[in-house]
Amino acid sequence: MTERDLSQGDLFILDSPLLTEVRGEQSLMAYPFFALSKTAWKRSLIYKTDAVSIEIGPGPRGVATIYDKEVLLYIASLLVSKLDAGEAVAQDFYFTAHDLFRVTGVNGSARSYSRLSDALERLQGTQIKTNIEAGGEGQAGFFSWLSEAQLHYTKSKNGDKRLKGVKVRLCDWLYRAILRDRRVLEYSPSYFQLGPVERRLYEVALSTCKGGAVQVGLDDLRLQLGYQNSLKHFRHVMKGITDANAIPDFHIIMGDTASSATVAGKGRNTTATTVTITPKPALMSA
C-alpha cells in the first residue's frame, strides 16, 4: 500500500479492486492453520509430524477460522497480482469491504460487516508458532496473521458511520513466503461456496496432487485437515462428501484396504481405510 500527501490530508490509495484470480500460499493449503468452525473456537490447535510442527493459540475472540482465511486469500491475491505486474509491494494493504465481499461471494449486509470486524480481530489475535520456514528463514516464537487491522469510517452529518476501507498489515512470515518463495496456487471460484471440511479437503488436494493421484490414510487425512472430532465422525462426513462428489477439480474415493499385523505372536488380518484423491482430467491437462 502507498500513501500520497494531498492538500486535503493524507489519503490511503486503494489496493482494490482485485482483477485477477484468487491465489493462496501453498503451506497454508497443505497444513491445518485454521479452525474448521463457523463459531468461536477457544481451544489451541496442535499439528505435529516428524517434519512439521504447528501450534495455534486463540486470541480473545478465539482461533481464526477457515472463513476468516478468506481475508488472507484476498490479501495474498492482491500481493501476487502486484508482483506479477512488476509493481512495488509492501506489507500494508488498504481495500474496500465491498470488493472483498464481491470476490468471496458475500452479500453486503450489516451482518457481513460485523462478521468482517470479528474476522479481523481473530486474525490479529490468533497466535501461530511453526517450524515451517518462509522465504528461506525460520523464526522462533509466536506471530499473528495480521499485525495491524483497522476499519476506517467516515461520519455523515447525522452521525451515521460509513465504512470507507479496511487497512491491514500482513505478518512477516506470510509476506516472506509469498514474496520470496512464490509457491502460490490458483483457487477454483467455487471454493467460497464450500463448507469448512470441503474447503480444507480441496486445499489439501490442490497442494498435494500436482503430480497425479495421491492416496492417504483416513486418520492421517483427518489430522492434516485439522478435523477435531473423532475418526468415526470424520468417516461419516467423508462418506457424504465422496457420495456427493462435492470437491471441485478432484475425484475423491474412500475405501478399505487389507493389511496384516502381528499381535502377541499371532498374525491378524486388518483393514485400513484410505482416501484416494485424483485430479479431474481438465485440471491435469491445464
What does this protein structure show overall?
- The chain has 286 residues and is of the alpha+beta class.
- The protein is 33% helix and 29% strand.
- Strands 4-5-7 form a 3-stranded antiparallel beta sheet, with no helix packed on it. A 3-stranded antiparallel beta sheet has the order 6-9-8.
- It is globular and about 75 Å long.
- It starts with a strand and ends with a helix.
- This is RepA family protein.
- Keywords: Plasmid.
- It comes from Novosphingobium resinovorum.
Notable characteristics:
286 residues, alpha+beta, 2 domains, 3-stranded antiparallel beta sheet, 33% helix, disordered N terminus, WH-like_DNA-bd_sf, plasmid, Replication_initiator_prot_A, RepA family protein
Briefly say what this structure is.
Keywords: Plasmid. This protein is of the alpha+beta class and 286 residues long.
What is the secondary structure topology, with strand pairs?
Blueprint: E1 3-6, E2 9-12, E3 23-25, H1 26-30, E4 45-48, E5 53-57, H2 69-84, E6 92-95, H3 97-104, H4 110-125, E7 127-130, E8 146-155, E9 161-170, H5 172-181, E10 184-186, H6 196-208, E11 214-217, H7 218-225, H8 231-244, E12 250-263, E13 266-279, H9 281-284
Antiparallel strand pairs: 1-2, 3-10, 4-5, 5-7, 6-9, 8-9, 11-13, 12-13
